[in-house]
Amino acid sequence: MNLVKSLQQLFSGGSGASAHHKRGMAKAKREDWAGAVQDYTAAIDSSNVSDDLKAMALFNRALAQSHLGQQDQAHADLHAALAIPDAPANIKMAAKEKLARWEKRQGR
Q1: Nearest to 25 by CA among 12, 13, 10
Q2: Which residues, in sequence order, are CB contacts of 49 under 8 Å at separation 6+?
Q3: pLDDT tens-digit profile of 28-53?
Q4: What is the mean pLDDT of residues 4-23?
Q5: Residue 6 above 70 pLDDT?
Q6: Considering only CA atoms, which of 105, 46, 29, 6 is closest in space to residue 58?
Q7: What's the pLDDT at 85?
Q8: Domains of the chain
């Protein structure tokens, strides 16, 4: 029964990782950065989160954190996304580019 319930949550847009990620994206679009961080965190912490969704949520949370001036946390999230072996290539590339821009701004 738990498997059925988990699958329903995953695909229904209810309380699964995907639903949290989608809500985070909607909040980020409205520039509700703190709300977006909360939803991305819920997606990352979900028990049913896939590696690719976790990497996307980490990347998106880093962007929201950057808007909130939380550069250390954003930097850590980008590195965490890069550390996921099965992260989508486009997420890894975007994370590397973002880190390179930050390092260049800081004169590293």
Answers
A1: 13
A2: 17, 43, 57
A3: 999 999 999 999 999 999 988 999 99
A4: 67
A5: no
A6: 46
A7: 93
A8: 2-105 (1.25.40.10)
In this prediction, residue 30 carries a pLDDT of 97
Rg of the chain's alpha carbons, rounded to an integer?
14
Predicted TM-score (pTM) of the model is 0.84
Alpha carbon separation from 9 to 4, 22, 25, 56, 97 (Å, rounded): 9, 13, 18, 19, 34
